[in-house]
Amino acid sequence: MEYTVPTLSIVFIIIDMVMGIAIPVALFVFLKKRYQCSMVAFGIGCAVMFGFALVLEQIVHFLVLRSPAGSMIQGNIWFYGLYGGLMAGLFEETGRLVAFKTVLRKKQYNDNNALMYGAGHGGFELFYILVFGMINNLIISLLMNSGNTEILTAALSGDALTEVENAFALLSGTSSSMFLVSLIERGAALIAQLSLSVLVWFAVKRGGKYMMLYPLAIVAHLLLDAVAVILNNFTGSIVLVECVVWVLALIYAALAYGVWKKQKSGYRENSL
């Protein structure tokens, strides 16, 4: 069976990819020029996201989800959502904690480096999902519309061929607007990443009772991810899920702003 992807879907896929590059770059340039933030903070944010979330966390998923407990976790949406959120929170917030306590300790004179780190951490996640995630969709869409899908299926048979054909059907049947949902979702995720970076930054910088901001960031991360997974399963409404995710992200931003205003050092813009 021949499948095609609407031109509008391809346009939206390309927009996702462009924004996946443009947004992190724009944040980097703005924070560097406006607040003289450290390029190292941005780079460390990218490295932590890659190392802790895309390497270490995935190793744990590989081990846990293939263990006897894995079947129970994957068979219950509540367990699955809470497990995924907890792992994301533990690895990403611990990555922040380690980075702020070590390589970025000497960058604490400028609290705006918390945002620069967050731009790297969240920006790399956005780049990974919107660029790497969408490039496969773009290539397959172009092959489908040009009638050249045999490039992908010629050497396949049986279950492997069925799986690829199901992917073709899914991509072809996906509403064009859904390809913009990823961009909208990533906007909320980026706000959350910046906010959680601020919380862990001041947990490390102030220490003492403010270290409670670190476990708070883990719980906040858990809640955001778990709610998205569980709510989507029960409602199936993307609009509702995105609204809830955005509300949570904005609450985190308000919390981070409150902590920032109370704890920010006396670093002045006119001293830059």
Rg, please?
21 Å
Number of strands: 0
Question: Helix/strand/pairing class, anyone?
Answer: mainly alpha
Distance between the termini: 62 Å
* Number of contiguous helices: 10
Question: Kindly state the mean pLDDT as a whole number?
Answer: 93
The quaternary structure here is single chain
Largest beta sheet, briefly? none
The helix-strand sequence is: HHHHHHHHHH
Query: What amount of the residues lies in strands?
Result: under 5%
- Low-confidence spans: pLDDT under 50, at least 5 residues? 266-272
Question: How does this structure look, described?
Answer:
- With 272 residues, the protein is mainly alpha-helical.
- It has one domain (7-149, 157-261).
- It is built from ten helices and no strands.
- The protein has helices spanning 7-35, 39-65, 68-74, 77-101, 113-145, 150-153, 158-173, 178-206, 213-235, 238-263.
- Helix 1 (7-35) packs parallel to helix 8 (178-206) and helix 8 (178-206) runs antiparallel to helix 9 (213-235).
- The chain is globular.
- Mean pLDDT is 93; it is low at 266-272.
Main features:
mainly alpha, single chain, globular, 272 residues
Concise synopsis of the structure shown:
The protein has 272 residues and is an all-alpha fold.
What topology does this entry show?
Elements: H1 7-35, H2 39-65, H3 68-74, H4 77-101, H5 113-145, H6 150-153, H7 158-173, H8 178-206, H9 213-235, H10 238-263
Helix pairs in contact: 1-5, 1-8, 2-4, 2-5, 4-8, 4-9, 5-8, 8-9, 8-10, 9-10
